[in-house]
Structure formats: structure tokens, C-alpha cells
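Page 42, continued from yesterday. The earlier attempt failed because a stray header line got pasted into the input along with the sequence. Redoing it now with the clean sequence only.
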Amino acid sequence: MSDETAYGQIPWTLPEIEHGYGDRVHLLADPVALTLLAQLGNGSCQQPAFNRILERLYEQLFLAAANALLPRKAVRVPTRMAATHSSAAYVGEAIDRNSKVVLVGVARAGTLPAYQGAALFNELLDPAGVRIDHVTMERRCDADGAVVGVDHSGSKFGGGVDGALVLVPDPMGATGGSMSDAVDLIGVLPGRPRAIATLHLIVTPEFLARMKADHPDTHVFALRLDRGLSTPEALAATPGTTDGERGCNEIHYIVPGAGGLGELINNSFV
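This time it went through. C-alpha cells are written below.
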């Protein structure tokens, strides 16, 4: 096999739960991540353990996205044993280190995961091709505390996205409003990205419906689907195959969810 052989067209099968939301939605079947996420969502989990667990969880998401969406190629990399055996080398498949990745930190809950992802991709890839951009958004609520919109107060993009895998981490995918707006902003940047993927600890059926309607080409990776307010009939059915699914309460918080993660990540309860 030539070292120049490309693997970019070979499909990569992720371990996912069965669902009917479409092939761009990846609900990972990862018992370790689900165990850690249950710990993270429990009221006893506080700093500094909270951010350490968050990093472990997001590493699973970033690796899943990298395995599924980054190009691969055949490589021959000598090992240390080449000092005594000249033929000693790893010959096989690897992620193309020349791949480009752009991480978009959506303030405030998505900022830390974006930096955590950059640290990982700086090791996996040539760091010259890894960039972090920033978007500042805030949920707008009515007098009853229900989310009624998103205020976009600014963004900082470092250039175009041509050929790049654009990753947008945001722990809680509730209604999809802010994430849809963030992908809108990415869509007007110069160039055509290799793919856009959003990465979440938890998503709801409402979130998935909004993203499919607004951005059907965007990949969604999540560790858990929460639909705790669904009808008994919907809960008994395969996710995404029936009506009656619901994961957000009246003020658009996720049930069972994990609470306000932006507050906990920053240790700032405002």
C-alpha cells in the first residue's frame, strides 16, 4: 500500500444508539461517558472535579468527531526499535496530520471545551492548522424565565474555513436556537468547510428537530439524549420515530438534564 493512499472516503462506523433522527445525528453508545456524565449532573459534583470530568467527556466527543470526519491516509512511521531493526515501523492507517480544525467557543459554556479540544488537536495534528474562534451569545428570557431568543453580542473569527473541520462544542443542546445562530455565523465565513459538527453532553428532541430544520448538513454528536418529559408511548419507542417526544420544560431547561452548566464551569452563578 502506498504511503500516499488516501482513506478519506472509507466510512467509519461509530458505536451509536439506534434512533430515527437521521444519519447526521450521532448519539454515542459509550457506557463510560454516560457514567461520568451522570456524576457531572449530580448536585454533589463541584469544582475542581467538575471541569476535570468535563474534559474527559469532551475528549470522547472530539475523538468521535475526529474518527468520523477527519481524512485518513496510509503512513509508515519508524519506531524506536528502528535503531536495532531497520524495518521497525508502524505501517497502516492514521489521521492526516495536515488536516485543519477550527473550534468555535460559544460563550459562556462552550469556551472551556473549545480550549480543551484545541489542546487535543494540537497533539493530533500540525498545530499550524488548529484555530479557536469565539462567539458571544446570551439567552434572552421573558418575565417568567422562559427562553424567548438569543442575543448575539459579538464574535471573533480568525479567518476562513476552507477545507477545515469546524467543531462547535456546547454542553447542553436544549432548544437549538443559539447553536443554529452560531452555525449561521460560520456559514458566511470565506471558504467551504470539510464539515461542521456540533458537540454536546446532552441534547433534546427539540434541539435535534431545530438543527435538522435549519442546518440539515451539520453533524450533531452527543453523549446522551434527554426526553424525560415525553409521553409514555414516546419513551417506549425508538428515539426519533414517534410524536410526543419532549426534553425541555416550560422555561427551556433540559429534563432530566444537568442544571446550568455554564454557571458550574465558570463557578459564576449569575
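Notes: Residues 1-10 have pLDDT under 50 and may be disordered.
Reminder to self: strip header lines before submitting.
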